[in-house]
# Entry
Amino acid sequence: MQVSLDNTKEYDKVVIYINSINGIFQNTTDFKFYINIDEPIKNIACIKLMNIQVISNFNYTHDDIFYIELNNYDRVVSYIKNPDNDNFNVIKYFENVQYTGEVLLSSAKKSSRVSYNSSSIDWSDPSVYLLNPPEPTLRRFDITLRDKDYQIINKNYIDALKMSICLYYINKNVLYK
# Structure
């Protein structure tokens, strides 16, 4: 089945809120974690990014950027110049958040955030990642946070990664027409 967002009656959706505080980290140093899904979600056609917030306790600079990997969903392709030569390294990731350093009230922690309009879904919307073919079964989210050099960030520098996404999945009735 080809994914098409032209007919919204063929899809259902579920909004998922991910907070790294609830994640299972693979070791004590890397900001790399996973979250198991209680009930697997079948036939995911697209993922709409609604909001991402990175809360840090480290003084980054305004040229810093956070790269977020979500499973193997490479929604964005970019390049980082190798400091040792003039070559570029290709990097693929789900989303990035530019460091803005907004001070959280009554705290020394800094927040950086990206938000998208969540009122519509369309194939031309840059916040939508179309899965073609659809993801047959999603059982967990694997998330990695990387720095501007595309190295995994040390867990001690980040307090939390919070993300809201909307998963659109194909109705069972449509699959069996």
Q: What stands out?
A: The first strand starts at residue 11 and ends at 19. The mean pLDDT is 87. The longest helix spans residues 172-175.
